[in-house]
């Protein structure tokens, strides 16, 4: 029974990692950049959720409040994502990758510490007031699962399905896949690469923002540095699943969440982080392209 | 051959000159203990940043876990000094060696891969090291840290102690510069630089690219470990939490600021960074925002840093002066 | 071009570096404080600095010490030991401080105690609770009680007052404070005859404790000890209730401010603290009112401790009648006075001998807003 309960805990944590990992993987697939700032987008999403709940407190119905939180978080995160892309990453698109990577670290530092000095975010942790209707647990036999965990799973699933449909079925999605495959060739075929890159950043960041709201509902104490650890772990999840692959990121996230929870529950809670990063190193050793990634030879 | 000898003497002479100047200014009290401390800290930063520049600037592989290697060197040296009563010099060297062994072990699987994998693996490695150091309580003191690490000297005269401290670090600094600059000018060094320029082309020239990346990475880990060993004696206290990701980023910033691929640039970068850190403290919480913005702006508008990949050559300078002098006569 | 500007930059750096810094003039006495003014715990550092400055201003307004004004020199250590060492070197060489209030966190303080002892600078740390801090020598004092004491207090309270026979602990393995409390609670609770059924840990920045709490719930303890700061405790408490842990949770002074940062889930929990905010003590009231008037904020416990530490130093200098380090040290040992955080005297290990208050969290008047009430006082 304890094992099943831990499995439920792990899947619920993993579904948040999946959402964050998708943002990493999309951006990497298109511009080959590890967007270190993605974890901080999660933080921005969480703060949007915090204010949305604060405003909606008491007045609106709880479902509307949550919907409002998601919309606000996704809109603002997408905006921030696009601004970062236009100002910081675009000038470096043809520079060595190492420069873009260092810039991404810089963006992450600015977002984290910028949030600390902005008065309505500030350095102190804030408690998120979740609508009453979403508190409490469902009990199934001996298992307990909180309402927020159910919401997390459901939202993640819906968002992933919508995203997959978008990438596979729409014209823009097709263009995204083309740019990801070969940027120069796509440009020659008349695809506006700049537009596609911006859309990718917007979608990736919006998902990050949505993950932020879910994260804030699961762990309702938020602060400017909150995005660092989930960001790193989601990144590992993306590498595990095969960076650039959206289904890979989903599976990777779930595996990370379950692995971490089972380590804490049955091996040692002291080693949980070491296990997460250990997984990364082992994957790189055994299967560098990840679970579902394609191993592409670099062409001259 | 003769030219090399003259160059060597010139370098040795100018190094000695700088050292004597600082030491004597400290002795008469013009440079006080606080600034000697900062210069010593800068020295340690420069040693670690130089080691990072070898793998990032010269080999073109971003490493984000140098704080991890530094912490291995620091803890190894401190534990040998405190638990095995070994003198400082062999302890620091052992710190470097142990760190190099870890570097080899990490590099072996990852350096076969291309792209950003090294960045991520080293980042992960840095995190694992922290978890391990936290859990090896008997040896490292865990999260309470390791306190009471003996300093370089304890003469009772604070000024003299400060000078001795600086002397140790300066000596290691000179050794680091000499080793790395000789390495990149040797024939393996040429291969290392060719990896940065074009890995595929280098491979097709018949170079065993992975092997040379390994050499660069192991040497890099060694010097980061040496820097750590010196750090432990300089600060006298170690805590796993301090060797975090942001600490690794500091060395990237120094190397980038000075110019990736320039040793003298790293030296300047390290000095500017250390002093700027102290002076920018008036900014309070805005300091890190400025720090991040600086990093972005540097990357977008001033990718070359202070020195680009050029070197400030003392021998070249001396020659130029002599040539000019000759013409004037 | 770049070469020239680089050379200029370095020359400039050295010139500025060599500018002699101004030191305290002869009609002031220099006191230093090293606090994290920036960085992750800057909130605590800024409050502590402000409280120290307030104490200094009050003392100067009342005529100063030995006919001289006190001057407070503030240095920022960003809560990193390395920077603390630099800051301490700066304070002793450039400002010639006779005493230091600081540092805030134990690692920072641990990094400078050996040097402070060697240079005979009286160091009073307001808030470093690590047991070994005062081991460095007779010049190192502290204004707060140490980890062992607080852990013992809670263990005793759990076993005797709450009648708990079994306990579980969840603590931050990367935080010295959390670990210290865990160790002392474990030792004291088992010594009393209780059993520890589960000890789980996490790392700094973790937010998901479901795995550990599920495990703890399956071991059914009578109490759960959560020695950490309020922001983490708030998360642990919520998840603990979800995981089906209904027993009281216990904490220490890190829980200060929990009432403003948690909801119903902490009702019926207890924690130890330095003083009770609703105490009817005039000194506490005056301090809180003065601080509010000056900085427009509610002072936390660490601010009160920094305020007390500053007063202790001023009193010692007065009593010593000079700024001779040995005389100040001897005078510090004679401290025995009522401060904001209680009646304080020092034992032979230079730890304060003072009592701890146990506070209880009860259902407040507003829903989801717990209230803090005084439960009992535990004497050392």
What would you note in describing this structure?
The complex is a heterotrimer of chains A (300), B (329) and C (380). With 300 residues, chain A is mainly α. Chain A has eleven helices and four strands, in the order H-H-H-H-E-E-E-H-H-H-H-E-H-H-H. Chain A has helices at residues 2-31, 38-56, 62-89, 97-117, 147-169, 171-181, 183-188, 193-218, 228-241, 246-267, 272-286; strands spanning 126-127, 137-140, 143-146, 221-222. Chain B has one domain. Chain B starts with a helix and ends with a helix. In chain C, strands 7-6-8-9-10-14-15 form a seven-stranded mixed sheet, with helices on both faces. A five-stranded parallel sheet of chain C has the order 2-1-3-4-5. A three-stranded antiparallel sheet of chain C has the order 11-12-13, with no helix packed on it. In chain C, strand 1 (28-35), helix 2 (42-61) and strand 2 form a beta-alpha-beta unit. Chain C is globular, with a radius of gyration of 22 Å. Chains in contact: A-B, A-C, B-C. Chains B and C meet through helix 2, helix 5 and helix 12 of B and helix 1, helix 3, helix 4 and helix 6 of C.
Per-chain topology:
The complex is a heterotrimer of chains A (300), B (329) and C (380).
Chain A: H1 2-31, H2 38-56, H3 62-89, H4 97-117, E1 126-127, E2 137-140, E3 143-146, H5 147-169, H6 171-181, H7 183-188, H8 193-218, E4 221-222, H9 228-241, H10 246-267, H11 272-286
Antiparallel strand pairs in A: 1-4, 2-3
Helix pairs in contact in A: 1-5, 1-8, 1-9, 1-10, 2-3, 2-4, 2-8, 2-9, 3-8, 5-6, 5-8, 6-8, 9-10, 9-11, 10-11
Chain B: H1 2-28, H2 33-58, H3 66-83, H4 88-110, H5 117-135, H6 137-140, E1 146-147, H7 158-185, H8 187-197, H9 199-204, H10 209-235, E2 237-238, H11 245-258, H12 263-279, H13 286-301, H14 314-328
Antiparallel strand pairs in B: 1-2
Chain C: H1 2-18, E1 28-35, H2 42-61, E2 69-76, H3 81-94, E3 99-102, H4 106-118, E4 122-125, E5 140-142, H5 147-161, E6 166-172, H6 176-192, E7 195-202, H7 210-219, E8 223-225, H8 230-242, E9 249-251, E10 270-273, H9 282-295, H10 301-320, H11 325-333, E11 336-339, E12 342-346, E13 352-353, E14 356-362, E15 371-378
Parallel strand pairs in C: 1-2, 1-3, 3-4, 4-5, 6-7, 6-8, 8-9, 9-10
Antiparallel strand pairs in C: 10-14, 11-12, 12-13, 14-15
Helix pairs in contact in C: 2-10, 3-4, 5-6, 10-11
């Amino acid at each position: 029974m304890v094992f099943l309960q831990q499995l439920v805990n792990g899947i619920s944590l993993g579904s948040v990692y999946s959402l964050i990992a998708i943002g990493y993987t999309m951006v990497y697939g298109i511009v080959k950049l590890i967007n270190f700032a993605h974890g901080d987008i999660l933080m921005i999403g969480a703060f949007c959720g915090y204010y949305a709940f604060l405003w909606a407190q008491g007045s609106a119905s709880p479902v509307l409040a949550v919907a409002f939180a998601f919309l606000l978080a996704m809109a603002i995160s997408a905006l921030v994502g696009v601004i970062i892309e236009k100002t910081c990453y675009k000038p470096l698109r043809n520079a060595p990758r190492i420069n873009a990577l260092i810039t991404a670290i810089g963006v992450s530092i600015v977002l984290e510490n910028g949030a600390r000095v902005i008065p309505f975010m500030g350095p102190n942790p804030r408690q998120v007031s979740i609508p009453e209707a979403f508190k409490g647990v469902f009990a199934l036999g001996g298992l307990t699962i909180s309402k927020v965990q159910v919401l997390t799973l459901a939202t993640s699933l819906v968002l992933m399905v919508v995203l997959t449909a978008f990438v596979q079925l729409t014209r823009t999605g097709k263009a995204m896949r083309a740019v990801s495959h070969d940027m120069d060739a796509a440009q020659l075929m008349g695809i506006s690469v700049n537009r596609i890159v911006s859309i990718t950043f917007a979608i990736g960041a919006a998902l990050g923002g949505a993950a932020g709201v879910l994260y804030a509902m699961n762990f309702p104490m938020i602060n400017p540095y909150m995005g660092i650890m989930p960001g790193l772990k989601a990144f590992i999840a993306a590498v595990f699943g095969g960076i650039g692959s959206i289904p890979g990121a989903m599976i990777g996230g779930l595996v990370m969440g379950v692995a971490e929870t089972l380590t804490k529950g049955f091996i040692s809670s002291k080693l949980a982080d070491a296990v997460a990063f250990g997984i990364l190193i082992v994957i790189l050793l055994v299967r560098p392209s990840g679970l579902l990634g394609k191993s592409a030879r670099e062409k001259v | 051959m003769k030219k090399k000898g003259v160059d060597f003497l010139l370098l040795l002479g100018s190094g000695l000159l700088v050292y004597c100047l600082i030491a004597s200014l400290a002795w008469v009290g013009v440079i006080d203990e606080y600034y000697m401390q900062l210069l010593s800290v800068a020295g340690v930063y420069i040693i670690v940043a130089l080691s990072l520049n070898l793998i990032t600037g010269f080999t073109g592989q971003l490493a984000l876990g140098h704080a991890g290697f530094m912490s291995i060197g620091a803890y190894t040296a401190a534990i040998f000094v405190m638990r095995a009563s070994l003198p400082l010099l062999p302890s620091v060297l052992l710190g470097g060696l142990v760190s190099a062994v870890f570097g080899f072990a990490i590099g072996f699987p990852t350096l076969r891969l291309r792209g950003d994998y090294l960045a991520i693996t080293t980042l992960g490695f840095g995190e694992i090291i922290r978890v391990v150091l936290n859990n090896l309580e008997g040896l490292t003191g865990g999260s309470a840290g390791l306190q009471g690490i003996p300093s370089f000297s304890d003469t009772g005269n604070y000024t003299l102690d400060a000078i001795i401290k600086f002397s140790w670090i300066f000596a290691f600094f000179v050794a680091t510069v000499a080793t790395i600059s000789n390495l990149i000018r040797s024939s393996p060094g040429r291969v290392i630089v060719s990896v940065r320029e074009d890995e595929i082309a280098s491979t097709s020239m018949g170079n065993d690219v992975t092997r040379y990346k390994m050499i660069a990475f192991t040497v890099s880990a060694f010097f980061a470990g040496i820097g750590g060993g010196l750090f432990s004696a300089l600060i006298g206290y170690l805590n796993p939490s301090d060797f975090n990701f942001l600490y690794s980023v500091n060395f990237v910033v120094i190397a980038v600021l000075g110019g990736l691929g320039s040793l003298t640039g790293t030296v300047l970068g390290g000095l500017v960074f250390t002093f700027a850190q102290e002076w920018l403290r008036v900014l309070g919480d805005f300091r890190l925002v400025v720090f991040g913005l600086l990093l972005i702006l540097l990357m977008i508008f001033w990718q070359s840093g202070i020195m680009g990949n050029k070197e400030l050559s003392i021998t070249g300078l001396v020659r130029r002066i002599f040539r000019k002098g000759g013409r004037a006569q | 071009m770049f070469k020239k500007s680089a050379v200029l930059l370095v020359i400039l750096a050295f010139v500025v570096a060599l500018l002699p810094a101004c030191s305290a003039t002869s009609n002031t006495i220099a006191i230093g404080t090293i606090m994290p003014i920036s960085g992750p715990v800057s909130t605590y550092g800024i409050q502590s600095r402000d409280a120290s400055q307030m104490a200094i201003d009050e003392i100067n307004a009342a005529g100063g010490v030995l006919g001289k004004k006190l001057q407070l020199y503030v240095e920022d250590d960003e809560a990193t030991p390395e920077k603390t060492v630099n800051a301490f070197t700066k304070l002793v060489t450039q400002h010639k401080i006779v005493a230091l209030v600081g540092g805030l966190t134990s690692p920072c303080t641990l990094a400078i105690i050996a040097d402070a002892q060697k240079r005979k600078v009286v160091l009073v740390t307001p808030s470093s609770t690590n047991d070994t801090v005062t081991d460095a020598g007779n010049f190192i004092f502290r204004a707060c009680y140490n980890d062992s004491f607080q852990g013992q207090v809670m263990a005793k309270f759990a076993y005797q007052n709450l009648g708990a026979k079994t306990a579980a602990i969840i603590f931050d393995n990367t935080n010295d404070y959390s670990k210290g409390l865990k160790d002392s609670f474990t030792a004291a609770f088992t010594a009393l005859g209780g059993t520890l059924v589960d000890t789980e840990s996490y790392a700094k920045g973790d937010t998901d404790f479901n795995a550990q709490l599920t495990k703890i719930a399956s071991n059914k303890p009578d109490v759960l000890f959560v020695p950490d700061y309020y922001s983490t405790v708030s998360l642990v408490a919520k998840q603990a209730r979800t995981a089906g842990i209904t027993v009281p949770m216990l904490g220490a002074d890190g829980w200060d401010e929990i009432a403003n940062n948690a909801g119903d889930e902490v009702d019926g929990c207890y924690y130890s603290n330095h003083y009770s905010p609703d105490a009817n003590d005039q000194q506490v009231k005056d301090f809180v009112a003065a601080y509010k008037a000056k900085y427009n904020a509610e002072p936390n416990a660490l601010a009160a401790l920094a305020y007390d530490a500053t007063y202790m130093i001023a009193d010692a200098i007065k009593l010593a009648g000079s700024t001779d380090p040995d005389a100040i040290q001897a005078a510090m040992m004679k401290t025995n006075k009522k401060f904001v955080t209680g009646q304080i005297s020092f034992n032979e290990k230079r730890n304060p001998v003072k009592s701890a208050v146990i506070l209880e969290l009860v259902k407040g008047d507003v829903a989801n807003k717990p209230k803090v009430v005084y439960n009992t006082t535990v004497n050392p």
